[in-house]
Automatic annotation (TrEMBL), chain A:
Listed name of the protein: 2-oxoglutarate synthase subunit KorA
Subunit structure of this chain's protein: Heterotetramer of the KorA, KorB, KorC and KorD subunits.
EC supergroup of this enzyme: oxidoreductase
Organism: Natrarchaeobius halalkaliphilus
EC number: 1.2.7.3
GO biological process, one term: organic acid metabolic process
CDD domains tied to this protein: TPP_PYR_PFOR_IOR-alpha_like
Keyword set, alphabetical order: Oxidoreductase
Top-rank lineage group of the source organism: Archaea
Region (Disordered) location: 436-474
Reaction equation(s) it catalyzes: 2 oxidized [2Fe-2S]-[ferredoxin] + 2-oxoglutarate + CoA = succinyl-CoA + 2 reduced [2Fe-2S]-[ferredoxin] + CO2 + H(+)
TrEMBL record, chain B:
Organismal lineage: Archaea, Methanobacteriati, Methanobacteriota, Stenosarchaea group, Halobacteria
GO MF entry, a single one: thiamine pyrophosphate binding
One Gene Ontology biological process: organic acid metabolic process
Species for this entry: Natrarchaeobius halalkaliphilus
InterPro entries referenced in this protein's UniProt entry, alphabetically: 2-oxoacid:Fd_oxidoreductase, OFOB, THDP-binding, TPP_enzyme_TPP-bd
UniProt name for this protein: 2-ketoglutarate ferredoxin oxidoreductase subunit beta
Length: 633, 311
């Protein structure tokens, strides 16, 4: 745990403005030159219920939420304002304070709204005693009173930010700028007054005995703060995607919303439709007619997409789907992350159905691999799926703006122009041989409805080169082999032409390995660094290509270590199973660290899991994780 | 130059152009009503001035779904019940295509019922032909949503306890702006109605009665039909929603009693199509989206321009 980092947690009720306040504060920290990473915890309720957002800020790179936190701003009373009869928890008003204390680090700061919470309630909490034990510094401030005095009660968020800035010795400049961007007139004036008043009173009223101050940092280039969902949406835009169809389901809704809001200005089309079967089928229809299209959902909705997914594969219609995982089975835990739909996404749909699956590990990769998914899907006429989760979807981090500065790629891949169609093979009836057996790399280029000389039939049945339903055994084998050939060609292309989409960390010569995938990458990366600092010899591999699987890369990694621990957020070790199935070996070398309680891994849990699991320390891990031994152990 | 030169191509078209030059020959049973739809379409398309390459026929699964295997246009034979979402999107992607969706009563009113209601509600500009043989044909004779009450089949051996669905009334209530019924045994009316449907700007739903001599021997489509427009017994304003609705109800009632009424039931020329509505609210470009990919001068906005709000 580093001392030169701030992990600020703002807690309250959903609907208390926790989100917007934290977004702005994170941006202010980023603008001050720091690297930031946000983590959002919220219940599946619209108003009320306890929620928090954590912002981790440091001079060095930050890849995960970190372990615990060191500043609590306990705010909000939406549950207190809307008291429900028989509300299911005890004292709602005290919740932002009481619910969060367990993870507050020693020496941490607590600011709570004295205007909402009275002394007696705090006495119940034993705050004084706990503060003493843990060296916490507690600041009760009448945020509500302050807000009321200069504006309106809802502006107590601003008061909280003012107090925070004072206690951390931060400059108000960036916060003021962001406020000015977001509002104007009297509202801005009132907020600025509240901010300054809170800042000054805090500075005057208290002796600062705490050690924590805002870290300082400096970016060389301009930074942007954005989420994994933003990155996927932007990757799609830059790949030339201009059609999206969907049906809302958390957490996929974010990508759907971002594109729906931006497409009208770009001449794109977004459709909210009756269900997920329709959504994916629309994407297939738009793609068939010549537009780069996508759809997506979360597990339950993706289940419905299994049909159109198979149709896209059989008709060789390019398609990109995104699957944003949340905890299952069934409706599961709608707002909690899990990595448990992997097998579902790999194998869903009947027959020897094939698709490409990418699992980006962070925000940059989400952008990059979305672009790649479109490129592969259109070049090879195959469905490509981006699998990610509620964590990557909702977390924000700063990314160098330059990273996104690349040309759009609206190319339709293996699609012929009318000129090219003139030269292409046709059968005696004049029909275009759209599904000819000898396509290069398994791909036979397509035409689009409305083009001269390109008439063909697309069908989900097995078909002849011009697309007629055909059950001739030779044709069947030819068509199936050609479709399967694509996967191998894609693997070769990914290996040869792209820098690996897998992410490695740690020292090449290390003796032990940690393998992970998707959004657990950041926590593992940090854990590997810490383990090495502690004298262990560990390196990490985060795999992004789920299908076609990077067999060579993963084999080389696993051969180079004595043992490896696979870290993933599910209860059945799905990725470990996938590795063993794909490689047909390593059963005895792989153990698992699993977490499925609804919260993502923190680096310390991975460190602890490693110590217990690999370094054979004689103890049970303390966190809510499970260790699954190697086959035969 | 357009990338889709087949679209809007004006020339004399021989209806044989819509017949595949070689295989496949239809595999439908002798006497199947599906032949009637195929024939009517082959006649209607050239009369409506359409060439094979500007037409996209999208079908579902079932005997009916094979329509586009025997009709030489661009075609997409999709999956059971899903022709409409595929067709709808193709039309949104390239509104200049002539999009015709087709399928059976099991396909369209059963498994695809949700899509049907919503496509009608939104009034997508397309033609939708449902081959209504009151039975599942391809899977060998099970009861369908339009099978009459009491209908016996292998899956309802004691006779169906379900009241049949009323496709005309359903479509009207859902929002379709053109609703008609025709029958394979009436080729001229069928051709005229299909032609009108193609020319109609909005969702044109044709409930097409197609006899299935193989599985539905007592199907009422065999009895002589009455054209409600031609008959003096029926006088209603096809543009009047209420009168159309009443006529549909009567038609659907008497079908169960063995009288087949066909014709146009509701035509709303004023309701804008979904495509028009979507353009009006600024959610759809004026130019066909699909064209853009072939336009070297097209300005492709990129995400970089959106980043400002994140800095
Ligand atoms: C998802 C799915 N369920 C079931 C089937 C099997 N199936 C094929 S055709 C059909 C019924 C078709 O009936 P209808 O739409 O009335 O068409 P018809 O064959 O009578 O023309 C069914 C159930 C299928 N192909 N896909
Ligand atoms: S089974 Fe019925 S619907 Fe199918 S082809 Fe034969 S007659 Fe036609």
């Amino acid at each position: 745990m580093s001392d030169d980092e701030l992990i600020w947690r703002i807690a309250g009720g959903s609907g208390d403005g926790i989100d917007s306040t934290s977004q702005n504060f994170a941006k202010a920290l980023m603008r001050s030159g720091l690297n930031v990473f946000t983590h959002r915890h919220y219940p599946s309720r619209i108003r009320g219920g306890h929620t928090y957002v954590e912002i981790r800020a440091a001079e060095n790179e930050v890849q995960s939420r970190g372990d615990g936190y060191n500043f609590l701003l306990a705010l909000g009373d939406s549950f207190a304002r809307n008291p429900q009869e028989e509300a299911y928890y005890g004292n709602e008003e005290i919740k932002p304070l009481s619910e969060n204390l367990d993870e507050l680090r020693d020496g941490g700061i607590i600011v709570y709204d004295e205007g909402l919470v009275d002394e007696d309630e705090v006495a119940d909490l034993d705050l004084e005693k706990r503060a003493e034990e843990n060296d916490w510094h507690v600041f009760p401030v009448d945020l509500r009173g302050l807000a009321k005095e200069h504006g309106r009660e809802v502006m107590r968020n601003t008061a909280g930010v003012g107090v925070t800035a004072a206690l951390l010795d931060m400059d108000l400049e960036h916060i003021e700028d962001l406020m000015a961007d977001a509002m104007g007139g009297d509202v801005l004036e009132a907020n600025l007054d509240i901010l300054h008043e809170a800042y000054e009173t805090t500075s005057e009223e208290y002796d600062f005995e705490h050690d924590l101050r805002a870290p300082v940092g400096d970016h060389d280039t301009e930074q942007a703060l954005l989420s994994g969902s933003n990155a996927i949406a932007y990757g799609a835009i830059d790949a030339g995607c201009r059609f999206i169809a969907g049906y809302p389901m958390t957490p996929w809704t974010d990508v759907f919303t971002i594109l729906s809001q931006n497409f009208p200005d770009m001449g794109g089309v977004s459709e909210q439709v009756e269900d997920e079967i329709a959504a994916a089928a629309l994407a297939v229809g738009a793609s068939h007619a010549g537009v780069k299209a996508m759809s997506g959902s979360s597990g339950g909705g993706f289940a419905l997409m299994s049909e159109p997914l198979g149709l896209a594969e059989m008709t060789e219609t390019p398609l990109v789907l995104v699957e944003s995982m949340r905890a299952g089975p069934s409706t599961g835990m709608p707002t909690k992350p899990e990595q448990a739909d992997l097998e579902f996404v790999l194998y869903t749909s009947q027959g020897d159905s094939q698709r490409v699956v990418f699992a980006p590990g962070n925000i940059e990769e989400a952008y990059e691999q979305t672009r790649l998914a479109f490129e592969i899907a259109w070049d090879y006429q195959i469905p490509a799926i981006i699998i990610y989760d509620q964590k990557l979807s909702g977390e924000n981090a700063n990314v160098d703006v330059e990273f996104f500065d690349r040309e759009p790629k609206p190319d339709l891949g293996a699609t012929l122009t009318e000129e090219e169609l003139k030269e292409a093979a046709h059968d005696n009836s004049g029909k275009f041989q759209r599904f000819q057996h000898e396509g290069e790399n398994g791909v036979s280029p397509r035409s689009l409805p409305g083009q001269k000389g390109g008439r063909f039939l697309a069908t989900g049945n097995e078909h002849s080169p011009v697309g007629h339903i055909e059950e001739d055994p030779d044709n069947r084998v030819n068509q199936m082999d050609r479709r399967l050939e694509k996967l191998e060609a894609i693997r070769t292309e990914l290996d040869d032409e792209y820098e690996s989409t897998q992410t490695y960390f740690g020292d090449d010569d290390a003796d032990y390995g940690i393998v992970t995938w998707g959004s657990s990458q950041g926590a593992v990366e940090e854990a590997v660094a810490r383990l090495n600092e502690q004298g262990h010899s560990v390196k990490g591999l985060s795999v992004s290509d789920m299908l076609p699987f990077p067999k060579t890369e993963v084999t080389e990694f696993l051969e180079s270590v004595d043992e490896a621990m696979v870290v993933e957020m599910n209860a059945t070790a799905q990725f470990r199973g996938h590795i063993q199935r794909e490689l047909g070996r390593f059963g005895e070398k792989l153990t698992s660290l699993l977490k499925y309680n609804g919260n993502p891994f923190e680096p310390a849990e991975v460190v602890e899991g490693y110590e217990v699991n690999i370094a054979d320390e004689e103890r049970e891990p303390t966190a809510q994780v499970r260790i699954e031994p190697a086959a035969g152990d | 130059m357009s990338a889709f030169n087949a679209i809007g191509d004006e020339r004399e078209i021989d209806r044989d152009e819509f017949t595949p030059g070689v295989e496949p020959q239809p595999t439908w049973c002798p006497g199947c009503g599906d032949f009637g739809v195929l024939k009517a379409l082959k006649q209607a398309l050239p009369e409506a001035g359409k060439t094979p390459e500007e037409v996209l026929t999208v079908t579902g699964i079932g005997c009916s779904g094979k329509l586009n295997s025997y009709l030489d246009t661009y075609g997409f034979h999709t999956i059971h019940g899903r022709s409409l979402p595929v067709a709808r999107a193709a039309k949104l992607a390239n509104p200049e295509l002539e999009v015709i969706a087709a399928g059976g009563d099991g396909d369209g009113y059963g498994i695809g019922g949700n899509h049907w209601i919503h496509t009608a509600r939104e009034n997508h500009d397309m033609t939708y032909i449902v081959f209504n043989n009151e039975i599942f044909g391809l899977t060998k004779g099970q009861t369908s949503p339009t099978s009459p009450k009491g209908h016996k089949s292998k899956t309802q051996p004691s006779g169906s306890a379900k009241t049949p669905l009323r496709p005309l009334s359903m479509s009207l209530n859902a929002g379709a702006s053109y609703v008609a019924r025709t029958a394979a045994v009436n080729p001229n009316q069928a051709k005229e109605i299909i032609k009108e449907a193609i020319e109609h700007d909005g969702f044109a739903h044709i409930d097409f009665l197609t006899q299935c001599p193989t599985w539905n021997k007592d199907a009422r489509q065999y009895v002589p039909y009455v054209d409600v427009q031609e008959s003096d017994d029926y006088d209603f304003d096809v543009h009047d929603r209420k009168e159309g609705a009443e006529m549909m109800r009567e038609t659907e009632d008497v079908l169960n009693e063995g009288t087949v009424l066909t014709g146009r039931y509701f035509v709303d020329d004023d309701r804008p199509s979904y495509q028009q509505e979507k353009k009006a609210v600024g959610e759809m470009p004026e130019e066909p989206l699909a064209e853009r990919y072939f336009d070297d001068d097209a300005e492709w906005e990129r995400s970089y321009d959106l980043l400002e709000r994140h800095t």
